[in-house]
């Protein structure tokens, strides 16, 4: 038995959100303020502790519902019969023939054996007294004429909402044939009829852990709690008796007993802490007083082989990690109902771990996520391990390191999307990407496999980025941060590019591989690529003889050339993202690309229906409101007044920055050439820079020996003045335009 889905309506940013749940671990990721903590909060208010259940605040309502309620109370609108008048949460509980159905039998509204899903619904909704609410607010507003109506309503409803809203529990019919909830068939649940805690038990490890407070011994408190939970288990019975008999003995003797008592827990902690031999080892030692037994008389210390140090002397990373593991062990004991022989574990146990990465370095985060599943699996087991509780775990994180070590199919990506007057959170399953790629590229494509491996191994931070830049190669990767800073300096933005959360991904000439992913995450994306022009010429062998095809026709080959000489582009990214423009406009590929404006390079995905086989085909089309911009070299005038359209990045950079390589502090050409070679070791044949018959295309073709070295040389030879950096070279126009577009929201 497990919860397969949770539907949430009108709760904070979760306006209309469906969250699919894995049977074991669901890893929830996303940018800041995208509903991760709200999900934890609503779970607590539905199935949490007694003091949390039903404890709604008016600010828990989504902003769109708050505005809707105000307009209804003011008489400007009215709720439609089918309209939800508050917050709703639906839990989809799936079961099979092996489950004990005793507790959920009350929820069953369909005896068809094929229906193996029940819906447990929670609502915080208006009572049938909207007229009373309207009347009371009218009187309240009349007495406060100095306040605007909106301000008066905000103050009134925040103070009095519990008079007009009520917390309700239902069982609602799930129609397995239509795979939808049938709202017309339901059962109102009373606390006398059903104990929800027997069906779902919920607890969490909050991100707000007290490990940073030097005066609070959080681990020591958790150690005491752990002992209280486990002291009656068989493995600790003997130890408990020893404690009672040895109360008048020395602390040293108690230290040995504590070591035995907490051995199981400490063994687990050592796996997570990455502790080496002779490094600090966490221990629990005795501080017993003659008048008391164990409770409240233990403290956690660190053994540095010669002295015992208090827990708050160790790093926050260790404190945080040990705190999490101790807390999980204690909560698992609660779930198993240890020490409660007259109680059975709940049918479903939900554990929520919030942001475990706090204060920990990347290596420790890797160790944590590698071991967490095993820790939870061990914690599920009851007694000798023959039985186990049903456990589902949710874990939120902002750590790209944790994502990199996680199962791709476990990941839920929360993204905020605008709707009407507010926003809604969409929960996307990364496993669905496989289906999208199969639809786009076919069942046998390797794009998804490559993307999955590349993102998890190298670029997991992309999931947390507000904006993305896809670049071709090493030169752009090394120079782009400097170009972003130069763009900031030129414009003095209120929110500079360098202050934004932008992820730069090197993709080569294969940005189309990322198309479904870019579409999936919906993040604003700049693609920087090359126009890569060529023309077709007769193919010849080494002797200059023309090659022919089998049918006798002359073989043709692609010849790389300047843009002004070209007809086609070899760039697959341009042909993919700008396919619609290339097919719908007249002229050669080169002419069309050169003629496109910046707005025509902003694209969005559209689904086109093939009339013959009725299949959808994803096509990117120009859309000035789109979230993807693809830029490439454009016509640009350099400082000498020469107008030119470059073919590649190096071509464009040399065109507008040739003086960077030639205007050196030497008078003789030979010395200049020598100095240029010393300064720019990523170049070869640097004398060509001083040959005015050679244009930037010639230089890009003949002079670049090591692109990464050239990029580093440019940075090393950059100059600063009056607080501005990189003043002795310019950013190519096409990159500058792209960065200016990306800077905006």
UniProtKB/TrEMBL annotation:
Sequence intervals crossing the membrane: none
InterPro entries according to UniProt: AAA_GajA/Old/RecF-like (IPR041685), Bact_Antivir_Def_Nuclease (IPR051396), P-loop_NTPase (IPR027417), TOPRIM_OLD (IPR034139)
Superkingdom classification of source = Bacteria
Where is the OLD protein-like TOPRIM domain positioned along the sequence?
463-532
Q: Which Gene3D superfamilies match?
A: P-loop containing nucleotide triphosphate hydrolases
Record-linked CDD domains: TOPRIM_OLD
Pfam families to which the protein is assigned, alphabetical: AAA_15 (PF13175), OLD-like_TOPRIM (PF20469)
Q: Which residues form the Endonuclease GajA/Old nuclease/RecF-like AAA domain?
A: 1-403
Q: What protein is this chain from?
A: SMC domain-containing protein
């Amino acid at each position: 038995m497990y919860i397969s889905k949770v539907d949430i309506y009108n709760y904070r940013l979760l306006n209309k959100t469906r969250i699919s749940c894995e049977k074991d671990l669901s890893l929830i990721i996303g940018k800041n303020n995208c509903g991760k903590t709200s999900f934890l909060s609503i779970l607590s208010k539905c199935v949490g502790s007694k003091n949390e259940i039903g404890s709604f605040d008016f600010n828990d309502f989504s902003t769109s519902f708050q505005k809707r309620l105000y307009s209804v109370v003011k008489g400007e609108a009215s709720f439609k019969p089918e309209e939800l008048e508050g917050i709703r949460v639906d839990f989809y509980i799936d079961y099979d023939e092996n489950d004990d159905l005793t507790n959920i039998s009350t929820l069953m509204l369909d005896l068809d054996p094929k229906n193996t899903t029940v819906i447990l619904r929670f609502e915080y909704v208006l009572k049938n007294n909207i007229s009373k609410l309207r009347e009371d607010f009218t009187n309240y507003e009349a007495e406060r004429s100095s306040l605007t109506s909106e301000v008066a309503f905000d103050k009134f409803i925040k103070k009095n909402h519990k008079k007009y809203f009520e917390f309700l529990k239902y069982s609602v019919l799930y129609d397995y044939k239509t795979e939808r909830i049938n709202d017309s068939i339901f059962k109102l649940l009373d606390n006398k009829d059903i104990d929800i805690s027997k069906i779902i038990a919920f607890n969490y490890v909050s991100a707000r852990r007290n490990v940073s407070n030097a005066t609070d011994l959080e681990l020591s408190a958790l150690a005491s709690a752990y002992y209280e939970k486990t002291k009656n288990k068989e493995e600790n019975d003997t130890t408990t008796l020893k404690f009672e008999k040895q109360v008048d003995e020395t602390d040293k003797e108690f230290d040995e007993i504590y070591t035995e008592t907490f051995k199981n827990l400490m063994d687990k902690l050592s796996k997570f802490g990455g502790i080496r031999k002779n490094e600090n080892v966490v221990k629990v030692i005795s501080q017993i007083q003659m008048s008391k037994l164990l409770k409240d008389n233990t403290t956690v210390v660190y053994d540095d082989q010669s002295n015992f140090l208090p827990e708050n002397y160790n790093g926050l990373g260790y404190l945080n990690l040990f705190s999490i593991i101790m807390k999980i062990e204690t909560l698992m004991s609660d779930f198993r109902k240890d020490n409660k022989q007259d109680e059975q574990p709940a049918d479903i146990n939900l554990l929520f771990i919030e942001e475990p990465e706090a204060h920990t370095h990347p290596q420790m985060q890797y160790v944590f996520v590698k071991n967490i599943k095993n820790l939870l699996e061990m914690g599920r087991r009851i007694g000798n391990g023959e039985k186990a509780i049903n456990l589902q775990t949710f874990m939120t994180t902002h750590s790209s390191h944790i994502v990199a070590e996680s199962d791709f199919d476990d990941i839920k990506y929360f993204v905020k999307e605008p709707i009407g007057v507010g926003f809604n959170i969409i929960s996307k399953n990364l496993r669905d990407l496989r289906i999208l790629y199969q639809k786009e590229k076919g069942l046998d494509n390797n794009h998804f496999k490559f993307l999955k491996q590349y993102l998890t191994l190298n670029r997991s931070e992309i999931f947390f980025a507000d904006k993305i830049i896809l670049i071709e190669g090493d030169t752009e990767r090394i120079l782009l941060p400097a170009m972003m800073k130069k763009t900031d300096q030129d414009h003095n933005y209120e929110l500079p590019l360098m202050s934004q959360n932008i992820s730069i991904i090197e993709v080569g000439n294969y940005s189309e591989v990322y198309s479904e992913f870019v579409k999936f995450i919906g993040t604003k994306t700049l693609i920087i690529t090359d126009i890569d022009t060529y023309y077709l010429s007769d193919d010849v062998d080494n002797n200059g003889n023309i090659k022919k095809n089998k049918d006798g026709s002359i073989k043709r080959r692609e010849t790389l050339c300047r843009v002004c000489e070209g007809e086609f582009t070899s760039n697959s990214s341009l042909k993919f993202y700008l396919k619609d423009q290339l097919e719908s406009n007249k002229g050669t590929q080169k002419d069309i690309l050169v003629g496109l404006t910046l707005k025509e390079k902003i694209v969005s995905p559209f689904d086109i229906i093939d009339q013959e086989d009725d299949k959808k085909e994803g096509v990117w089309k120009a859309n000035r409101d789109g979230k993807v911009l693809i830029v490439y070299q454009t016509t640009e005038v350099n400082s000498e007044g020469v107008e030119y359209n470059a073919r590649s990045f190096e071509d464009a950079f040399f065109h507008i920055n040739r003086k960077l390589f030639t205007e050196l502090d030497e008078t003789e050409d030979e010395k200049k050439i020598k100095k240029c070679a010393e300064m720019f070791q990523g170049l070869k044949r640097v004398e060509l820079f001083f040959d005015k018959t050679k244009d930037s295309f010639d230089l890009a073709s003949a002079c670049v020996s090591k692109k990464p070295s050239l990029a580093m040389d440019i940075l090393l030879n950059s100059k600063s003045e009056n607080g501005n950096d990189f003043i002795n070279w310019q950013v190519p126009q096409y990159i500058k335009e792209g960065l200016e577009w990306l800077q905006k929201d």
